[in-house]
Specification:
About 25% of the residues lie in helices and about 45% in strands. By secondary structure, it is of the alpha+beta class.
Length: about 160
C-alpha cells in the first residue's frame, strides 16, 4: 500500500510543482512606455521641413506625424512608398523605401538571382540608417516564399515558408 502511495504522491508533487516552474515571473520584465503617433495639427518645424526637402527632393504628397518628439513622414517617390523618421532638429534617423525588383541596384539583383534563379522577386525594401544600408528582398516560387537580407555584399536567408 505504501509503495503505491509514494509514486502517486511524487507524481502529484511534480505536477503541482511544475506549475510554478512553468509560470513566468513578470517582475523581471519592464514595460516600455507606449509610443504615440498622431497626425500633426501644427506646422512641421522649418528646420525639419528644409532637411526633409534636402534629403528627398523628389518627394510627393508627404504626410507628417509626430511620434515621441520625432517626426515620421510618409511620402511617394516615383512608384515607391517611403517612410522616414527625423529628429526635431532635422536629422534623419532612418529611411525605408518599399519597391520592386526594378528598384534594386544591378549588383544586388544579380547576387539574389544568382542564388535564387528560379524565384521571382516580389518586393525589394531598402532600409537606411545609422550609416548602414540593408536590402530586404521577398522571393516567391510555386512552392515557397523566401525572405533574404543583404548588407555590404553579404546575403542571409532570414525566413523560408512553404506554401500549403
Amino acid at each position: 500500500m505504501k509503495r503505491q502511495c509514494i509514486p502517486s504522491l511524487f507524481a502529484m508533487l511534480i505536477v503541482l510543482g511544475g506549475q510554478q516552474v512553468l509560470a513566468q515571473d513578470t517582475s523581471l520584465y519592464k514595460t516600455l512606455p507606449p509610443v504615440t503617433i498622431s497626425p500633426t495639427n501644427t506646422k512641421v518645424p522649418e528646420k525639419v521641413w528644409k532637411s526633409f526637402e534636402k534629403y528627398f527632393a523628389t518627394a510627393e504628397n508627404p504626410k507628417w506625424y509626430e511620434a515621441n518628439k520625432t517626426y515620421l513622414v510618409k511620402f511617394m517617390t516615383e512608384d515607391n512608398t517611403n517612410k522616414a523618421l527625423m529628429t526635431k532638429n532635422g536629422h534623419l534617423i532612418y529611411h525605408i523605401s518599399y519597391g520592386y525588383e526594378k528598384n534594386l541596384p544591378e549588383d544586388i539583383r544579380k547576387q539574389v538571382k544568382g542564388s535564387y534563379y528560379d524565384y521571382e522577386i516580389t518586393r525589394a525594401i531598402k532600409v537606411t540608417g545609422s550609416g548602414r544600408t540593408i536590402w530586404v528582398v521577398n522571393l516567391e516560387d510555386s512552392k515557397e516564399f523566401i525572405l533574404v537580407m543583404l548588407e555590404e555584399g553579404d546575403m542571409e536567408e532570414v525566413q523560408k515558408i512553404t506554401k500549403s
